[in-house]
């Protein structure tokens, strides 16, 4: 009998399989079952057009059987089978789809991991078997053939006996080695779990003999083992079912079965698209932030199926970073099983699906915001930060997309509001969207800087998240209204009269302010008359792009120790304290220094900043008490 050599490319793949060091050896079963399912599909499609052929669903199935004693694992199907020629062409040569993926991957460094993740086809059998035997009888043929190979030495094809049409693949499972346990591929429970994991939604029943225990008939305490054929896979995936037939509970069960999360999702999105691109997807918006969500360990992504077969656990390309919280799966018939990660990235179909999904998530969130505000706020509590991060990242590329989804706490409404809501109730004379930053709502509420804006009757957005100000700086404006910090130099609310007043006050007190500036030396850039204070004597604001809040945040990041906002000490010239300052300036320079330092430190405290020398500060207070 002639032993034929594998075609060169196939041999390379084979070598990799035989000497495989891949961790996910278990995928061999997924590959063989997928092939079996494809073979049944082929009969099915033939039956659709050939009236001599009927497709009797009962007769089509896949069987998996382990023979521990002889170390044999057998995968049988009632599919279309292969002729001798087909055995030669299909199994002696690497299959078209797999070949390209393999070639590119084999040259890349992380090829190993990729083999574990993606379809590798029939040869995957050699990861776990020393000898692979394929017995097949093709539809319409009288003769069956046996293809056999131990990998390295090539293969043989000989005529053999087989009654029914279909294929039987027999694997002689390798002996255990020190590093590898191959026995597990003969264990019932292990095989069952591999089938469940990868092939649960294969459309045909995958049958297996399963041993269970039962009470012996007529006995009350004696048990016996019995063997029973079971269908292991659930066949019809929930995502292929009609939405109308499914309840909220079904979706919730799927969420927990799949371990997408331990919470109860806020919303599920079931998508079935049947057009230029065909896919089904079930997506979830979780309720709670996963514990590692805001850490670098968190991996975004959706499960990716190709026609019911899982090909990737976390396909990151399906989700933009700003929607990284979305969980779920996508199944498309248009994706090949034999697809590599590199190819996925360039896959046009996948890109289209991703775009589609992105749109859908956005519109679902908008719907939630519009119709189920409470739920949306709950969602926002968990993942709003990620949306704001999305506005800020990639140089603001996605800001238009996301701005409608943002919420901020409103000084007026005492709750979260959208930018649109804010702008729509702005009085005619209000030029800007005002905001104030601080650690908590309570603290911002008491900030002296907010007084004038609030007095004007204008709404202020409170920024308590460290990303807020950065995101808003990226946004710059919403519906042509610019954002303005209540601490910024020009608040845009002075009348001309106010401006004149301010100027004359500034001139009148020029020398006093110069003296104070000198006392504070490099601590402040300037001392000025405040236009925003009403009941408080002083405050600190910042000149320029970096605000005091931003300084705090940037400083807390490594390498940013030198970041500093330009500080301006603002004085309320209508406050009683100012009279004392003036008096001291004229009569007692030492007192002026004392008062200036005290006021400066007070302003720092109000702002939530550290007083540089607390001992000196308390000593100063004591001085005015005696
Ligand atoms: P792919 O499934 O991507 O084509 P494989 O290496 O898994 O690549 O399989 C190679 C080919 O062998 C298949 O395309 C098919 O024609 C044939 N084949 C494999 N297993 C079976 C089977 N159980 N029944 C019929 N044909 C099969
Ligand atoms: Mg295959």
Low confidence ranges: 96-103, 105-117
Q: Give a quick account of the main beta sheet: strands, pairing sense, barrel closure.
A: 8 strands, mixed
CATH-defined fold name of the largest domain: Heat Shock Protein 90
Q: How large is the count of helical segments?
A: 21
Please bin the fraction of helical residues.
Answer: 25-40%
> What class would the helix/strand composition place it in?
alpha+beta
The overall number of domains is: 4
Rg from alpha-carbon coordinates: 36 Å
The CATH superfamily name of the largest domain is Histidine kinase-like ATPase, C-terminal domain
Number of strands: 22
Q: Which small-molecule ligands are present, each listed once?
A: adenosine-5'-diphosphate, magnesium ion
State which percent range the strand residues make up.
Answer: 15-25%
Terminal CA distance reads: 114 Å
List keywords for this structure.
8-stranded mixed β-sheet, 626 residues, Ribosomal Protein S5, domain 2, Rossmann fold, 4 domains, elongated, alpha+beta, binds adenosine-5'-diphosphate, Heat Shock Protein 90, single chain, 22 strands, binds magnesium ion, 6-stranded mixed β-sheet
Summarize the structure in words.
- The chain is α+β, with helices and mostly antiparallel strands and 626 residues long.
- The chain folds into 4 domains: 11-231, Heat Shock Protein 90, CATH 3.30.565; 238-377, Ribosomal Protein S5, domain 2; 406-493, Rossmann fold (3-Layer(aba) Sandwich), CATH 3.40.50.11260; 494-626, Heat shock protein 90, C-terminal domain (Four Helix Bundle (Hemerythrin (Met), subunit A)), CATH 1.20.120.790.
- Helices cover 38% and strands 21% of the residues.
- The chain has 21 helices and 22 strands.
- The strands form 4 sheets. The chain has an 8-stranded mixed β-sheet, with helices on one face. Strands 15-14-17-16-19-18 form a 6-stranded mixed β-sheet. A 5-stranded mixed β-sheet has the order 9-10-13-11-12, sandwiched between helices.
- Strand 3 and strand 4 (144-149) form a beta hairpin.
- The radius of gyration is 36 Å and the shape is elongated.
- The model is unreliable at 96-103 and 105-117 (pLDDT under 50).
- The site of adenosine-5'-diphosphate (ADP) has 17 residues, from helix 2, helix 3 and helix 4.
């Amino acid at each position: 009998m002639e032993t034929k050599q594998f075609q060169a490319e196939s041999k390379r793949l084979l070598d990799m399989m035989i000497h495989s060091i891949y961790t996910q050896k278990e995928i061999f079963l997924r590959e063989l079952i997928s092939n079996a399912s494809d073979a049944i599909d082929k009969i099915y499609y033939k039956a659709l057009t050939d009236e001599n052929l009927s497709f009797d669903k009962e007769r089509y199935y896949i069987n998996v059987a382990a023979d521990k004693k002889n170390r044999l694992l057998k995968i049988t199907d009632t599919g279309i089978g292969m002729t001798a020629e087909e055995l030669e062409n299909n199994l002696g040569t690497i299959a078209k789809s797999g070949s390209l993926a393999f070639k590119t991957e084999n040259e890349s460094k992380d090829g190993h991991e990729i083999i574990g993740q993606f379809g590798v086809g029939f040869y995957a059998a050699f990861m776990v078997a020393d000898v692979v035997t394929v017995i097949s009888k093709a539809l319409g043929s009288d003769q069956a053939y046996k293809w056999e190979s131990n990998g390295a030495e090539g293969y043989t094809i000989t005529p053999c006996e087989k009654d029914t049409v279909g294929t039987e693949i027999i694997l002689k499972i390798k002996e255990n080695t020190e590093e590898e346990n191959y026995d597990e591929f003969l264990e019932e429970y292990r095989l069952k779990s591999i089938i469940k994991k990868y092939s649960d939604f294969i459309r045909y029943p995958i049958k297996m003999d399963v041993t269970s225990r039962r009470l012996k008939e007529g006995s009350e305490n004696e048990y016996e083992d019995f063997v029973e054929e079971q269908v292991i896979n659930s066949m019809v995936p929930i995502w292929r079912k009609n939405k109308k037939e499914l309840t909220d509970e079904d979706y919730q069960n799927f969420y927990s079965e799949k371990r997408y999360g331990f919470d109860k999702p806020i919303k599920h999105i079931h998508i079935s698209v049947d057009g230029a691109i065909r896919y089904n997807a079930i997506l979830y918006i979780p309720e709670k932030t996963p514990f590692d969500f805001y850490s670098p360990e968190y991996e975004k992504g959706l499960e990716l199926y190709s026609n019911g077969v899982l090909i990737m656990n976390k396909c990151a390309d399906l989700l933009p970073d700003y929607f990284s919280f979305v969980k779920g799966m996508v199944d498309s018939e248009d994706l090949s099983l034999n697809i590599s990660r590199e190819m996925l990235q360039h896959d046009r179909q996948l890109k289209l699906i991703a775009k589609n999904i992105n749109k859908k998530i956005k519109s679902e969130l908008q719907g939630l915001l519009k119709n189920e505000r409470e739920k949306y706020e709950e969602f926002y509590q968990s993942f709003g930060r990620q949306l704001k991060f999305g506005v800020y990242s990639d140089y603001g590329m996605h800001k238009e997309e996301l701005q409608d989804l943002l919420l901020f706490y409103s000084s007026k409404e005492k709750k979260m509001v959208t930018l649109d809501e804010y702008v729509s109730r702005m009085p005619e004379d209000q030029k800007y969207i005002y905001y104030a930053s601080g650690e908590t709502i309570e603290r911002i509420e008491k900030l002296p800087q907010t007084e004038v804006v609030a007095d004007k009757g204008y709404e202020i957005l409170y920024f308590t998240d460290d990303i807020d100000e950065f995101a808003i700086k990226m946004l710059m404006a919403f519906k042509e209204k610019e954002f303005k910090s209540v601490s910024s130099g020009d608040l845009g609310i002075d009348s001309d009269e106010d401006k004149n007043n301010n100027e004359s006050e500034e001139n009148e007190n020029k020398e006093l302010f110069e003296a104070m500036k000198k006392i504070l030396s490099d601590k402040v850039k300037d001392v000025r008359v405040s236009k925003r204070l009403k009941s408080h004597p002083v405050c600190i604001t910042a000149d320029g792009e970096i605000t005091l809040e931003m300084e705090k945040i940037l400083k807390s990041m490594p390498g940013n120790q030198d970041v500093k906002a330009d500080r301006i000490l603002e004085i309320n010239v209508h406050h009683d304290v100012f009279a004392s300052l003036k008096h001291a300036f004229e009569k007692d320079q030492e007192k002026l220094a004392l008062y200036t330092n005290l006021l400066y430190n007070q302003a720092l405290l109000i702002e939530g900043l550290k007083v540089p020398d607390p001992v000196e500060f308390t000593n100063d207070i004591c001085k005015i008490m005696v």
